[in-house]
Amino acid sequence: MKIGVIGGGQLGRMLALAGTPLGMNFAFLDPAPDACAAALGEHIRADYGDQDHLRQLADQVDLVTFEFESVPAETVAFLSQFVPVYPSADALRIARDRWFEKSMFKDLGIPTPAFADIQSQADLDAAVASIGLPAVLKTRTLGYDGKGQKVLRTAADVEGTFAELGSVACLLEGFVPFTGEVSLIAVRGRDGETRFYPLVHNTHDSGILKLSVASTDHPLQALAEDYSSRVLKHLDYVGVMAFEFFEVDGGLKANEIAPRVHNSGHWTTEGAECSQFENHLRAIAGLPLGSTAKVGESAMLNFIGRVPPVEQVIAIADCHLHHYGKAFKAGRKVGHANLRCADMATLNAQIQRVEALIDEA
After folding, report:
1. How confident is the model at residue 167 (pLDDT cuts 50, 70, 90)?
2. Is the pTM of this model over 0.90?
3. What is the DSSP string of 277-307?
4. According to DSSP H, which parts of 27-88 are helical?
5. Which residue from 101, 168, 182, 93 is spatially nearest to 137, judged by alpha carbons?
6. CA 96 to CA 99: how far, in whole Å?
7. Is 246 annotated as a binding residue?
8. Whole-number Å distance between alpha carbons of 30 and 47
9. Is 143 annotated as contributing to ligand binding?
10. In the chain, where are the structural domains located?
């Protein structure tokens, strides 16, 4: 089976690493000349809206998926005329637009922060008067890793902010006084079978995920699965989806969804019976889903900007290095380390050792 992937970054690379043992081959469509997934398959260098090259991809693969939601929904809809594409264009259209996303949560009875659609500075001024401060203004599309957003704490922060974010459609969200940030990685097959990984505790730095730690028997696991199931069924979703939540007053408020494999699920490569990457491929290919059970205690630490010396990383017991082969650049995710330990005390100690290497890099 040959899988086409829209996007050739590290997520596509890790999908190929998971699919190769299953006898799958890969082709990546990505405009970047140095797409890091290209080492794992054919690289079709073209823009995501280039219909001639999209048709070329469709003609040579059995099905198509995508590695991130910056892909236009129109691209997925076009490809769907010629080859199965999972997740669907409708799922992508909703997940990539914060207004559609939050409106869906509201319709499905899933708690969210207060929010408002912003099309102008006047809209922003009116929404701030209604929702109050502090609040967060985010572009409706294309924002990730802290990009395309601004925290508004005072009236001075509000003035001119719509233009500051590019005078594009935005969403204002009320600030949530959360006690923690968690994510749930779910996978749903073509037949509707659904499985969930354990909730993950996430720590961010400057809007970029820094650390994810898989939980054991989290008290909000069942609630997270309930909310996630509503979305998966509503979208008739196929593949892996990540759900990000705020822990608030002993419950959960939905932050956002990602219609793809996700950074907070990277720990599953060594820390679960079947990784999120393999399960995504199983789901879209119509194969039986794998077990999402944990193997030991696990965590993931991102390498931002540069990877510490390889020999130092792999010298740490229970540590597994994932180097993306990307040029080092400030603010860029260039690799991560997965830790899998027998107990939490050991895991916490090893996290500190990797964090020390990151600080020295």
Report:
1. very high
2. yes
3. HHHHHHHHTTPPPPP--B-SEEEEEEEES-P
4. 51-60, 73-79
5. 168
6. 9
7. no
8. 6
9. yes
10. 2-85, 114-174, 180-359
User: Is 335 labelled as part of a ligand binding site?
Assistant: no
Asked if CATH classification 3.40.50.970 holds for the domain at 180-359, the reply, yes or no, is no
Fold observed for domain 114-174: Dna Ligase; domain 1 (3.30.1490)
**Does residue 278 have a known ligand-binding role?**
no
Burial label, 66 (beta-carbon count in 10 A; 0-12, 13-18, 19+): buried
Residue 164, marked binder:
no
Pick the CATH number of 2-85 from 3.40.50.1240, 3.30.70.20, 1.10.1610.10, 3.40.50.20: 3.40.50.20
Q: Count the alpha carbons within 13 Å of 361 in the hemisphere toward its beta carbon.
A: 23
How is residue 219 written in tokens?
Answer: 């008290």
- The whole-number pLDDT of residue 146 equals 60
Task: Report pLDDT digits (tens) over 250-266.
Answer: 999 999 999 999 999 99
Q: 173 labelled as ligand-binding?
A: yes
- Please check if 148 is assigned to a binding site: yes
Say if residue 361's pLDDT is above 80.
Answer: no
Average pLDDT over residues 148-154: 91
Known binder of ligand: residue 98? yes
The answer on whether 256 is annotated among ligand-binding residues is: yes
